[in-house]
């Protein structure tokens, strides 16, 4: 249910009326106002207009699907990392690289996840050494 204000006019109409009735400089113009004025929508956004029936495409990379499987398998065993720090690889990239290595060796996806969780449960340091050795051999 919409409020009375939404039924009276759109946000653009209310803001433009507010700006025209105030003294210049007493109220700051919103960032979106000039863009909306220059490029108005094809249809005025009204509160009672039904939503469009548009199917939204899924945009997942293959890496995202792998990351989801790895995180689901390892649960809370991966430590959080700082997204702003891009100096070195984060801990979540290591299991993904190992997963990709296992799949490239011929294991199925389920077997690769199972082997990855077994390796991860054994010791994180062993996994890091495996990854470094593979990284050196592949370059």
TrEMBL record:
GO terms for cellular component: mitochondrion; ribosome. Pfam families: MRP-S23 (PF10484). Keywords: Mitochondrion, Ribonucleoprotein, Ribosomal protein. Its main location: mitochondrion. Residues 2-124 form the Small ribosomal subunit protein mS23 conserved domain. One of its GO terms (molecular function) is structural constituent of ribosome. InterPro entries: mS23_dom (IPR059242), mS23_dom_met (IPR023611), Ribosomal_mS23_met (IPR019520). The keyword Glycoprotein does not apply. One of its GO terms (biological process) is translation. PANTHER family: MITOCHONDRIAL RIBOSOMAL PROTEIN S23, SMALL RIBOSOMAL SUBUNIT PROTEIN MS23. Belongs to the mitochondrion-specific ribosomal protein mS23 family. This is Small ribosomal subunit protein mS23. It comes from Pediculus humanus subsp. corporis (Body louse). The gene is 8230249.
């Amino acid at each position: 249910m919409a409020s009375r204000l939404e039924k009276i006019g759109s946000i653009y109409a209310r803001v433009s009326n507010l700006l025209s009735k105030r003294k210049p400089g007493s109220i700051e113009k919103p960032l979106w106002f000039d863009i909306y004025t220059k490029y108005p929508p094809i249809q005025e956004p009204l509160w009672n207009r039904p939503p469009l029936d548009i199917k939204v495409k899924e945009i997942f990379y293959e890496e995202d699907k792998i990351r989801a499987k790895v995180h689901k398998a390892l649960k809370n065993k991966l430590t959080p990392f700082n997204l702003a720090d891009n100096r070195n690889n984060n801990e979540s990239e290591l299991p993904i690289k190992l997963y990709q290595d296992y799949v490239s060796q011929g294991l199925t996806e389920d077997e690769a996840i199972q082997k990855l969780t077994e390796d991860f449960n054994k010791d994180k340091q062993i996994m890091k050494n495996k990854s470094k050795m593979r990284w050196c051999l592949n370059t």
